[in-house]
C-alpha cells in the first residue's frame, strides 16, 4: 500500500512537470501586447499617430483597422485602404505605428491593432479630432441699423469641437445693459436681445467664441440706433451788454448727424461772416454742441435766436432770448437767467438794507436833538419860577 501511494504521488508530479514543459514549448512564440494603446487627441489638420507594441511576433502579421466601419487600413507594411493619408511604419517589427496625415473631423473614432493569432488578439484606442472655434457668416448678424424703441437681437452662430462657448462684450468695455435691471460687462449665449433699444445701447459689440482649442475667435458687430434730433438749451434767457461779444449754446442729440443752423427772430438765417461764427463740436457718436458766436452785440441782436437741427427722421429747435442790460464796459460782461440774476437780487437786497439802516440812524439823531432841547427848556422854566416865588 505504501509503495502504491508513492507511485501515485510521483506520477502526479511527473504530469505537472510535463505540462509546464509542454506549455513553454507550445506558447513560447505566441505574440503578446507589451502595453495598452493610448488614446490620441489632435487638432484638425495635424498628424495623428497610434503605437502598438507586440512581443514574439514571429511569423504572425499585424493589421490596423477602423472599428466603426470595419475597414482594414494596413496589413504588415502594406496600406490596403485607398486613403492616401494613411501610412504604416514599424520599429524592428516590434512596435507598429499607424500614421494619419492631415487629420479631418471624419477621422474621429476607434482604431484597432490586430494580430492574426487563433483566436485573434487586438487592442483599440480612440482618436479625438478637436476643432478650433469658428464664427459662421450666416446666421451671424452683420452691422445693424435699427430705429430707437424697437426690439433687436444680435446672433452669433459658431462651430467647433468641443462646442464653443459664446460670450458678448462691448468694444469700449462699458457695461452691456439689457432692460432695466440686467447689467454686466460680459454676457454668455449665442444671442443678445435688446427690448426697446435706446441710443445709449448703440455701439460696437464683440461676439467671442472659445472652446479650449486655440485660437479663440471674435466678430465685431455694430449696433447703430437711429432717432430724430433732440435739443436741450442750457440758458434760455441771457442778459448781455450792447457792443459785447456773446456765445450761444445748444446741446443736440441726433443720429444720423443732423443738418444744423441758426435763425434770427424774423426767421432769417444767421449767415457766417465777420460778425457771426457758427460751428458744431462733436462730443460723442450722437451728442454735439451747436454754437453761435456774436462778435459785437448790436440793437438787432437783442431778441430771439433759434437753433435748429434736422435729420431724415425729424427735427427739433431751441429758442434763446437775448436782452439788453446796458452798454459794454459798464460793470459785468453779461448775465444769464441762471446765475447773475440771483446776484442782482442779492445786490438789490443789500442796497435796500443799507438805505433802511441809513434812515434809522437819521431818525435816532433827530430824536436825541429834540430830547436835549426839551431838557434845556425845562431847566430854564424852573429857574424863572424860582425868581417869581416869594421867600
From TrEMBL:
Keywords: Cell membrane, Disulfide bond, Glycoprotein, Immunoglobulin domain, Membrane, Repeat, Signal. Transmembrane segments: none annotated. SUPFAM superfamilies: Immunoglobulin. It holds the Pfam family I-set. GO terms for cellular component: neuron projection; plasma membrane. Residues 1-23 form the signal peptide. It is found in: Cell membrane. InterPro entries: Ig-like_dom (IPR007110), Ig-like_dom_sf (IPR036179), Ig-like_fold (IPR013783), Ig_I-set (IPR013098), Ig_sub (IPR003599), Ig_sub2 (IPR003598), Neural/epithelial_adhesion (IPR051170). Residues 31-125, 133-222, 228-326 form the Ig-like domain. It comes from the Eukaryota. The keyword Glycoprotein applies. This is Lachesin. The lineage of its organism: Eukaryota, Metazoa, Ecdysozoa, Arthropoda, Hexapoda.
Amino acid at each position: 500500500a505504501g509503495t502504491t501511494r508513492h507511485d501515485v504521488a510521483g506520477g502526479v508530479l511527473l504530469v505537472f512537470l510535463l505540462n509546464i514543459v509542454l506549455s513553454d514549448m507550445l506558447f513560447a512564440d505566441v505574440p503578446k501586447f507589451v502595453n495598452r494603446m493610448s488614446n490620441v487627441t489632435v487638432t484638425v489638420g495635424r498628424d495623428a499617430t497610434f503605437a502598438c507594441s507586440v512581443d514574439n511576433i514571429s511569423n504572425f502579421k499585424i493589421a490596423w483597422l477602423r472599428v466603426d466601419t470595419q475597414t482594414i487600413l494596413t496589413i504588415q507594411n502594406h496600406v490596403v485602404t485607398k486613403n492616401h493619408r494613411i501610412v504604416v511604419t514599424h520599429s524592428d517589427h516590434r512596435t507598429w505605428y499607424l500614421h494619419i496625415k492631415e487629420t479631418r473631423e471624419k477621422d474621429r473614432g476607434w482604431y484597432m491593432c490586430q494580430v492574426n493569432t487563433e483566436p485573434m488578439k487586438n487592442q483599440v484606442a480612440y482618436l479625438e479630432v478637436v476643432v478650433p472655434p469658428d464664427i459662421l457668416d450666416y446666421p451671424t448678424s452683420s452691422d445693424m441699423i435699427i430705429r430707437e424703441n424697437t426690439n433687436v437681437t444680435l446672433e452669433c452662430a459658431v462651430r467647433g469641437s468641443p462646442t464653443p462657448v459664446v460670450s458678448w462684450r462691448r468694444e469700449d468695455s462699458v457695461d452691456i445693459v439689457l432692460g432695466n435691471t440686467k447689467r454686466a460687462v460680459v454676457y454668455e449665449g449665442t444671442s443678445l436681445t435688446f427690448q426697446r433699444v435706446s441710443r445709449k445701447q448703440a455701439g460696437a459689440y464683440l461676439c467671442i467664441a472659445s472652446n479650449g482649442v486655440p485660437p479663440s475667435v471674435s466678430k465685431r458687430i455694430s449696433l447703430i440706433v437711429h432717432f430724430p434730433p433732440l435739443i436741450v438749451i442750457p440758458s434760455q434767457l441771457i442778459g448781455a451788454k450792447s457792443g459785447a461779444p456773446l456765445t450761444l449754446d445748444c446741446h443736440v442729440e441726433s443720429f444720423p448727424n443732423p443738418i444744423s443752423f441758426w435763425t434770427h427772430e424774423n426767421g432769417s438765417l444767421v449767415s457766417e461772416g465777420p460778425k457771426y461764427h457758427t460751428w458744431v463740436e462733436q462730443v460723442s457718436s450722437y451728442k454735439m454742441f451747436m454754437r453761435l458766436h456774436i462778435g459785437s452785440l448790436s440793437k438787432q441782436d437783442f431778441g430771439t435766436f433759434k437753433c435748429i437741427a434736422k435729420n431724415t427722421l425729424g427735427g427739433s429747435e431751441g429758442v434763446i432770448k437775448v436782452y439788453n442790460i446796458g452798454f459794454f464796459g459798464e460793470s459785468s460782461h453779461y448775465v444769464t437767467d441762471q446765475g447773475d440774476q440771483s446776484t442782482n437780487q442779492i445786490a438789490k437786497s443789500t442796497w435796500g438794507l443799507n438805505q433802511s439802516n441809513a434812515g434809522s440812524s437819521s431818525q435816532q439823531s433827530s430824536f436825541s436833538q429834540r430830547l436835549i432841547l426839551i431838557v434845556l427848556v425845562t431847566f430854564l422854566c424852573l429857574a424863572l419860577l424860582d425868581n417869581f416865588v416869594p421867600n
